[in-house]
């Protein structure tokens, strides 16, 4: 059965484990569909194989270091990145927290179209960080944006015990009206 009305073949964005396509939902709404590259979870899993051996060797020299716990935690966090249902959950949580924020905007998740390797959200039009800066925003505007980003990345951690672990400028878009769409949760 056809789930989407249409989906553009060329991605609008690409990253290390997937790419984003513009699509249209059956009701006509534009959506961003993030599709994971095939076998990426297996590749990440395989990359941690040598680390397991390394931790055994390191524990011989540093028996109290518990390096195996560190590697295990890193492995779990990297593999968590491949679970787009978890990302949808986190994005919805951030969306609830910032629902009424005057600057920060979190696109809606279309949960009926999500799966472990597919994330479907509201499509937002905006400009990237470099384009925003090329517009020579005033110091007042830069300060306003800086405070909002600080609130999102650190305020979320200390006020709501949730942290967006990928705070690079490619994960937000500047929208008309002075808001910032926060992407990649």
Counting H and I runs of at least 4 residues, what is the number of helices? Answer: 6
Globular, elongated, flat, extended or rod-shaped: what is the shape? globular
Q: Rounded to an integer, what's the Rg over CA atoms?
A: 19 Å
Tell me the helix content. 40-55%
Q: Which stretches are low in confidence, meaning pLDDT under 50 for 5 or more residues running?
A: none
Overall SS class: alpha+beta
Order of helices and strands: EEEEHHHHEEHHEE
Termini separation:
29 Å
* Mean pLDDT figure: 90
The counted number of beta strands is: 8
Largest sheet: 5 strands, antiparallel
Percent of residues in beta strands?
A: 15-25%
Structure overview:
By secondary structure, this protein is an alpha+beta fold. 42% of the residues lie in helices and 17% in strands. It is built from six helices and eight strands. The strands form two sheets. Strands 1, 2, 3, 4 and 6 form a five-stranded antiparallel β-sheet that branches. It is globular and about 60 Å long. It starts with 5 loop residues before the first strand and ends with a strand. The model has no long low-confidence stretch (mean pLDDT 90).
SSE order and pairing:
Blueprint (H helix, E strand, L loop, with lengths): L5 E2 L5 E2 L3 E7 L5 E7 L3 H8 L1 H13 L5 H14 L3 H14 L6 E2 L12 E5 L6 H6 L4 H22 L11 E3 L5 E3 L3
Parallel strand pairs: 5-8
Antiparallel strand pairs: 1-3, 2-3, 3-4, 4-6, 7-8
